[in-house]
């Protein structure tokens, strides 16, 4: 990985993180329930990540630099759920339905179990 690519990812990541915080705060300001901001962020991030994967990776319609900046950096800082969603979608559309189901279910189960363990350890339980 080149210094240029690292810088593009870092700049994109900072922008994505700021965008996530702004959108999440906006949801709070309008009085939306707590998970609404996260739901909106994850949905928007999933759409944008899939769009960019199709344009940048599959169709090579945009410069390669955009991949590092936007997909890894910007959307990585915005949400990692988008990567998960695109991976499940690509497995599904690639005919690997059982792999997509196992990956999706495994991610959910192991993610929640890991979160429960982290809470228990952090709370001293």
State which percent range the strand residues make up: under 5%
Extended strand count: 0
Number of helices in the DSSP assignment: 5
Anisotropy-based shape: globular
SSE sequence, one letter per element = HHHHH
Mean pLDDT: 89
What does the largest sheet look like? none
Give the end-to-end Cα distance, rounded to a whole number of Å: 42 Å
Fraction of helical residues = over 70%
Q: Structural class given helices, strands, pairing?
A: mainly alpha
The poorly predicted ranges are: none
Please tell me how large the radius of gyration is. Answer: 17 Å
Features:
125 residues, 5 helices, 86% helix
Provide a compact summary of the structure:
With 125 residues, the protein is mainly alpha-helical. The protein has helices spanning 3-29, 34-58, 64-78, 81-93, 97-123.
